[in-house]
Amino acid sequence: TAINSKGEVTASYNDRKGGGHGFIRRATGKIVPFQVGAASTIAMAINDHGDVAGYLATGADSRMAFIRRQ
Asked: From its phi and psi, is residue 66 left (phi > 0), alpha (psi between -120 and 50) or beta?
């Protein structure tokens, strides 16, 4: 979970099947879910532009970084 100076939050959640998804909670309260590719998406950081950095869990021991730009 991370928060920027605008009050926007990013975090991740697991669905019923165990798949990871990211989301942004805007300062207005609006929730914006997102998925990067077909792998589990783990959101780790958000900057003041609303760009989110994190990683994809592509296998048991495999990770790939991403940046989701606004």
From this structure: beta
